[in-house]
Amino acid sequence: MVSDTVKNQVFARLGCQSSEAKLLGGYNQHVFEVNRGEKLVVKIEEESAASEQGVLSECEWLSYMHEHGLRVVRPLRITADTYLNRISEECFFVVYEKVEGAHVSPQDKDVWNHTLFEQWGEMMGKMHTLAKTFQPVHERPQWFANRLFEEDSRSVDPILLEKLQQYHHAFKSLPVSDDHFGLIHGDLHHHNFLRKEDELTLLDFGDSEYHWFAYDIAIAVYHTAQTVPKGSARKEFVHSFFQSFMEGYSRGNPTAVFLSQIDFFIDYRHLFSYIYHSVYADMSQLTDQQRKYLDEMRLSLQKGESYLGFPLE
User: Fold this and answer.
1) Which of 287, 300, 137 is nearest to 222 (CA)?
2) The pLDDT value given to residue 54
3) Which of 4, 121, 218, 227 has the most C-beta neighbours closer than 10 Å?
4) What values do phi and psi take at 141, rounded to 5?
């Protein structure tokens, strides 16, 4: 969590009052909305959590997508030469345009429907198509350089760490052509886009990395499945969601040749998510329900159960 001292320095640099800043969230409670004549979003980073290279590469990727017509949140330069604004050797901040719109609720059946799922899929497909032509100055990381893999993982069951290594070994046999592998969002669930007047804007590219396109789709399926309780209703919903999502995706990226990999990556996402929360979550701050959910994840993974319990196709 960002200290009050750092927040005050950032807001003073922007000519804003700390008392007027609105916390928007972020895994480390580090994203704020400010108003200095126009509404802006400010993300405050610490070097321990985000590198300068990582932030600049994210901004470059966002700018490229925006220039090519994809609705994404746009980074802004508040000085002429850079997106990155240093407060100290340890801290810096980035400013983004404030996107109008609202998050979509799965309970809002007027919006949470096939039309949305197709649109969501089409935007992901367009993003993957743009990734094939993107030639960055600042490279996003490869999947194996994900900072999670460099963290102290002694709190994680060794059996599950071994399963992670087995997945990574299996990755070596997957094709890495431009039609299979490239720059992905890495976390495009329904909390990471905003909707306004039937238009979606994609947010939060901090997890963007070079990975298999099938994994990006698997992430969307995995997190969407969690909106429906286990059982026949989930199975029916997930199949319907996947069909609509892929109808849209294939319009955005007509060369989708990797459908058989998606089930594999859904189970990988389940393991990755458990390890991520085990490493980064402050267990003392979790609710009883959250601890129970993590325990259920661990037991399911130890048993080697498929997350969905059924194939997508």
Assistant:
1) 300
2) 87
3) 121
4) -70, 155
In which residue are the tokens 């969002």 written? 185
Residue among 192, 26, 23 nearest 104 (CA): 192
Tokens linked to 157: 């069951």
The per-residue DSSP string of 37-88 comes to SSEEEEEEEETTT--HHHHHHHHHHHHHHHHTT--B--EE-SSSS-S-EESS
pLDDT at 301: 95
pLDDT in tens, 136-150: 999 999 999 998 998
Taking the C-alpha atoms of residue 29 and residue 245, their distance in angstroms, rounded to an integer, is 31
Least reliable range by pLDDT among 118-127, 175-184, 283-292: 283-292
Question: Domain 4-97 adopts which CATH fold?
Answer: Phosphorylase Kinase; domain 1 (3.30.200)
Name the token pair of 102.
Answer: 């609202």
Q: What is the pLDDT of residues 100-118, one digit of tens each?
A: 999 999 999 999 999 999 9
**Where residue 163 falls among pLDDT bands split at 50, 70, 90?**
very high
DSSP 30: -
HSE, side-chain direction, 13 A CA sphere, residue 91:
16
Mean pLDDT of 116-128: 98
Give Cβ neighbours of residue 56 (< 8 Å, ≥ 6 apart): 82, 83, 84, 138
Cβ distance 252 to 121 under 8 Å? Answer: yes
Q: How many residues does the chain have?
A: 313
The domain ranges of the chain are 4-97, 114-302
Q: Class of 114-302 per CATH?
A: alpha beta
